[in-house]
Design goal:
This protein is α/β, with parallel strands linked by helices. It has three domains: 132 residues, Ribonuclease H-like superfamily/Ribonuclease H (Nucleotidyltransferase, domain 5); 133 residues; 138 residues, no CATH class. It contains 19 helices and nine strands. The chain starts with a strand and ends with a helix. The model has no long low-confidence stretch (mean pLDDT 91).
């Protein structure tokens, strides 16, 4: 006998949640009702759910919500921890908004509104239940929050550095071309760029005096300060001169931008400290630390986004060669995670036609994709197995060589990562695995 489960669809917003209740056949029991997205609203929703479960004698509860920003998280955490709902085996499903949008195309054109969306959210789960239910894991969510925060800071730092380079060209157009310092954003370079001294003043100084100033700013770390001083004066001679009033405004912006860059770098270091501390609670993810070049940040970034590999092994999968369902294996889990990360190339085929050009998927978990690709860049520099694979893929195409080879290396690394997380064991080199 099929279990009678109440289907609940929730559309989350900053202030409100809109719900719809369906019976197992898909008929609305409550077409639409709005509640506050706050504790009083949660209590009201819970009362409606309990009354409906008792009235219709349902034995199970499927609750689906659309992943809209972070508005869904507090509500889902309370649903997962509520003892009054535990007796009904509540299964929580977090749906990608794209899934719901594509599902709605199966129906006649309808309004896109808070009144209708909860129905399609509930119906999507009823007719095609997601393979993996959402699980509450506050420590894992904390680790993921830290790694996503670091990702946010890295993006902000990259934008700020590009902005800084634009104003640096206005202030000293030859600076980046002549490279008076090996690192544009190094300590000495920043100190020089933040000083109020004009380019004309730097060009007028004797090389020995300027070299002494650079030696002081670098705390004696510059190996050849005279060479740096000569390059800096060349920058001053070859750069465009600006009106003094405009030059002063640009200098103010440049100095403030460099201060912001320094602040962001400090925030990134703080986030990395938090990540290292939080990682101690996850022994399986710590196994990724044994991957050469990965370190705490990339290990946490990949492990926190993947979560438990067991979630991807649940259920059955259709085997077209044997024409039957079979249990999922690690290769299936690897393929599923690759799709989440967007490291796959959808096929375009119809009838006897099959497209030769297959483009990488655009819909992806950008955090997981970022950490996998950054980690693969370290692996291909340190692990012979990945070095050979990267070199082979690099030579296969005439353009976009590095980007393509690096993405394919990241896809290959997923097999190793899934194995380490599943077996909770350290990485072994190719030579160790064959001895």
């Amino acid at each position: 006998m099929t279990e009678a489960r109440l289907q609940v669809g929730i559309d989350f917003g900053a202030s409100w949640v809109d719900i719809c209740l369906l019976n197992p056949a898909g008929d609305p029991l409550l077409a639409h009702q709005r509640f506050l997205n706050a504790l009083p609203g949660y209590a009201a929703v819970k009362q409606v759910l309990v009354e409906t479960l008792l009235t219709h004698a349902y034995t199970g509860l499927d609750i689906s919500g659309e992943a809209t920003g972070m508005y869904w998280l507090p509500f889902f955490l309370h649903l997962a921890a509520d003892p009054d709902l535990a007796a009904y085996d509540p299964q929580l499903y977090l749906l990608n908004p794209r899934w719901v949008a594509w599902f709605k195309k199966c129906f006649a054109q309808d309004d896109k509104s808070d009144l209708k969306d909860p129905y399609y959210i509930a119906e999507r789960t009823r007719v095609r239940r997601p393979a993996v239910a959402w699980q509450a894991d506050p420590p894992g969510l904390a680790l993921r929050s830290y790694t996503r925060y670091r990702f946010h800071l890295v993006e902000a730092l990259a934008r700020e550095k590009c902005f800084c380079c634009a104003y640096l060209f206005l202030q000293a157009s030859a600076y980046r071309r002549l490279k008076p310092f090996s690192d544009l954003f190094g300590v000495t370079s920043r100190a020089i760029l933040q000083e109020d001294a004009t380019l004309e003043h730097l060009a007028a100084l004797p090389v020995a005096d300027l070299a002494a100033r650079l030696r002081e700013l670098s705390h004696g770390h510059l190996p050849q300060p005279e060479h740096n001083a000569a390059k800096l004066q060349q920058v001053a001679r070859e750069s465009f001169t600006l009106d003094p009033q405009l030059a002063q405004a640009i200098q103010h912006i440049l100095s403030a931008t460099l201060e912001h860059i320094t602040f962001l770098e400090g925030q990134i270091q703080q986030a990395e400290t938090w990540i290292t501390t939080a990682l101690a609670a996850y022994p399986p993810i710590q196994q990724l630390l044994t991957l050469p070049g990965y370190g705490p940040v990339y290990s946490a970034g990949v492990g926190a986004e993947i979560g438990s590999v067991q979630h991807f092994l649940a259920g059955q999968k259709w085997d077209p060669q044997r024409a039957r369902y079979r249990p999922r294996n690690l290769r299936d889990a690897e393929d599923a995670i690759a799709k989440i990360a967007g490291l796959w190339w959808p096929q375009a085929q119809s009838g006897s036609f099959a497209a030769e050009d297959r483009h990488m998927a655009t819909a992806a978990n950008r955090y997981l994709r970022y950490y996998l690709i950054q980690g693969a860049d370290h692996l291909r520099k340190r692990v012979p197995e990945f070095q050979r694979f990267y070199a082979r893929k690099y030579t296969e195409v005439p353009k976009h060589k590095h980007k393509r080879a690096l993405v394919l290396t990241a896809r290959k690394s997923l097999g190793v990562i899934v194995g380490l997380l599943h077996r909770n064991e350290p990485y072994r080199s190719e030579e160790e695995r064959h001895t």
